[in-house]
Design brief:
The protein has 207 residues and is mainly alpha-helical. The chain has helices at residues 3-30, 37-53, 60-70, 75-83, 87-94, 104-129, 131-147, 154-175, 179-206. Helix 1 runs antiparallel to helix 9, helix 3 crosses helix 4 and helix 6 packs across helix 7 (131-147). It starts with a helix and ends with a helix.
């Protein structure tokens, strides 16, 4: 392989890790937590590594959240910061014609995944903006599970639910109207995605 292109693929690989981590650092700093670019590299590296070794890349963001919480950033702040990394969904929307290249069963699973993502996005939006509606839904589920004896101590769950939702909404309110910050975070996410795509291109050019 051509060593120059191979070196550039390593640079892009590091960029993929660093840009994601730096986006998280910028969000954490906005929430008032002191973090460094090195901390961000740990967050981004954890995401990439655990995504690579877990089914459907499901372990990446929980691993990032773990290291952020370990550094003193509360879980709700970590989750709100990670929620902004949605550029992958945009790629799926703009590259929808690629679905034609997949088999029928693959399309079913891909479409199912899209439906689940949309559902989770709606739940998260309600958590941040429509807390009363989401609380009513969750409260109804708690009451149902109490009646059929699946859970006990429903009052404790309701108190925990209220506290968690309050924390999420506090974080959401702190970034409301912060257009400049959101544009900056979006830029770092774009750079992360471009870096990831360029790794494959650089390897192709190298060989």
């Amino acid at each position: 392989a051509n060593k120059g292109w191979l070196f550039m693929s390593f640079v892009c690989t590091f960029g993929f890790i660093w840009f994601e981590g730096f986006a998280l650092v910028r969000m954490a700093r906005h929430f008032g937590y002191k973090t460094s670019a090195i901390d961000g590299t740990v967050y981004g590296g954890a995401d990439v590594y655990f995504s690579a070794i877990t089914p459907s890349a499901s372990g990446g963001q929980p691993a990032s959240a773990y290291f952020m919480i370990r550094d003193g950033i509360p879980g709700y702040a970590a989750t709100v910061a990670l929620s902004l990394l949605t550029i992958g969904l945009l790629c799926m929307i703009f590259k929808y014609p690629l679905l034609k290249n997949f088999s029928g069963i693959s399309r079913i699973f891909i479409c199912l995944g899209i439906v689940v993502l949309i559902f989770l996005a709606l739940v998260f939006y309600m958590l941040l903006r429509k807390g009363s509606i989401l609380y009513s839904i969750c409260d109804s589920l708690i009451r149902l599970f109490e009646k059929i004896h699946i859970i006990r101590h429903g009052d404790r769950l309701r108190i925990k639910l209220k506290n968690t939702m309050k924390e999420y909404q506090e974080c959401s309110n702190s970034i409301t109207g912060q257009t400049g910050l959101l544009i900056e975070i979006f830029f770092w996410n774009i750079m992360q995605r471009v870096s990831q795509l360029l790794v494959s291109f650089m390897i192709f050019m190298a060989v």
